[in-house]
Amino acid sequence: MALTTYCRLLHVHKFIFGNSANILSRVGLGDNGMAVLACPKHSARFKSSEAVDRKEKQRQHMARGLPKQKPVAGVKQVIVVASGKGGVGKSTTAVNLALGISANDQTKSVGLLDADVFGPSIPKLMNLKGNPELTEKNLMRPLMNFGIPCMSMGFLVEETAPIVWRGLMVMSAIEKLLRQVDWGHLDYLVVDMPPGTGDVQLTITQNIPVAGAVIVSTPQDIALLDARRGAEMFRKVNVPVLGLVQNMSVFQCPNCQHQTHIFGEDGARELARTLGVDVLGDVPLHLNIREMSDRGQPVVVSSPDSPEAEAYRKVASAVVQRLAALSD
User: Which of 9, 15, 90, 113 has its CA 20 to 30 A from that of 218?
Assistant: First the structure.
């Protein structure tokens, strides 16, 4: 028993401190027969050079553990649309952002990826059903509507079937959605991220280069708390935060035209100032957005002259401008 513990302690010591000289002289057996590190009379002090070497070895070890980023084939820039909390209109914003970019500049090709494995919304919002066909290279061909190629886990399972997967299965599915889809040639791929800051977010940001993140939030304080966590997560993984979209910013009564800030006023603007990022735009709480989304007819294409469609096109324009500024 003492010999086994002795060997393990030597192994741990070598892993932490490297093959430094006189390791054996530092290890001995204690009174109880267990292996212990011999301590000098005074508390251990390490030279600064040893500390630097240890930190460098730790850095190299961590670098080996992270996957190398590889661009999505045929895609120039990836834009992720995220929120810290569900129910703030993230998926609706992602759909209308993709359509808005395409409407503002029809020479640009835009794709839409639904990365929300557990709650895919893109099939409903884009009025798409069916299974993707396979190309000769055994790649999935995206389903198309309104000129936007789309891919979602919702195309691969029954509409009402729950997806009960652990983290590794989810990450494998995301990898397939990224790598085994024939996107053709896209200027922008808009990715509808799931809420929160979990496995999917890390898998995407660590495996592919992301041009920028759009954070969607309502002005409500509880939503802003999670939006801030989302923004801080992207900063930690070195993804530029393009800005915030303040969704459901104001409700205007269709009868008397009185405006009411149901979820608070300008909360996202205050958070943007705190984070030092831009507000990409305000989208109102409007019945037309909800009705058209439920019908699979996003307002940017179904009501292009409406104020709410104009709001989404302004957000799209601001996103493209921010990406251009970052690339300069």
Answer: 113
